[in-house]
Amino acid sequence: MKVAILGGTGDQGLGLAMRFAMNEANEVIIGSRKEEKAIEAAKEAMERLSTVQSKDTKNISINAMTNLDAAKEADVVLLSLPFEYTISTLKDLKDALKGKIVVSLMVPLASAFGDKPTRVITCPQGSVAEMVQAYLPESTVVSGFHNVCHKCLCDLENPINCDVLIAGDDKEANKTVVELANTINGVNGIDCGKLEISRYIEQITPLLVQLNIKYKAKGTGLRITGLEGKL
Length: 231
Ligand SMILES: NC(=O)c1ccc[n+]([C@@H]2O[C@H](COP(=O)([O-])OP(=O)(O)OC[C@H]3O[C@@H](n4cnc5c(N)ncnc54)[C@H](OP(=O)(O)O)[C@@H]3O)[C@@H](O)[C@H]2O)c1
Fold this sequence. Notes:
Mean pLDDT: 96
CATH topology: Rossmann fold
Bound molecules: NADP nicotinamide-adenine-dinucleotide phosphate
CATH architecture: 3-Layer(aba) Sandwich
Distance between the termini: 21 Å
Oligomer: single chain
Largest sheet: 8 strands, mixed
Shape: globular
Low-confidence stretches: none
CATH class: Alpha Beta
Structural class: alpha/beta
Helix content: 25-40%
Order of helices and strands: EHEHEHEHEHEHEHEH
């Protein structure tokens, strides 16, 4: 799968880029507002991947482009942006994203406006993913990857022990994003249904942040039980 991560120079985006790149099924592009910054991030990702003992990483490559070129190039485009800058970023990308699967992983943490990271702001559309879908009516928006933390993603020697909850209105697009999630070692992608379910998925992250703080944990995650043999 040809996957681009816009804002892929940040903690979460870089972690996802490295994890996707570890699976031969994926072709990964890091996007940035500045091409040079994307190139630096891809170089860093490649260096970190080259130190992984548990896997042969010789044939891995990660491309680097501006957000616009990355959006044009990929089939599946992940938005890994501070949520408060999502719409301003999408303004110039609307055409490039037409007909594509766009994955929203932004969490509307209140810390963006100086409040606690254990609180969220409510978007008028109900969730960030629904806000993105309303802004990009000609793209297929899928919500996912909110509940996996960058520290676990960047701990490349170990599998990630968590489920990735996915929601969207197009069943085929959800299936594609579940497949993408499943390319990460240890991750189990779960299609949770319609895009509006993202309202609850996005709100799980502040709970995980609270648990990280309370228990001084590196990165808490989530496992759904009772679905064994049904996915
Ligand atoms: N960090 C986590 O553990 C985690 C976990 C779950 C979900 N998330 C979600 O994932 C998203 C990304 O998280 P992050 O921690 O990687 O964020 P981040 O490091 O703060 O930002 C990601 C990238 O966004 C771009 N960016 C920054 N300011 C911008 C602006 N004004 N306009 C346009 N682009 C801008 C930057 O890329 P360029 O400068 O290269 O353009 C930056 O590297 C967030 O929405 C977060 O809620 C994060």
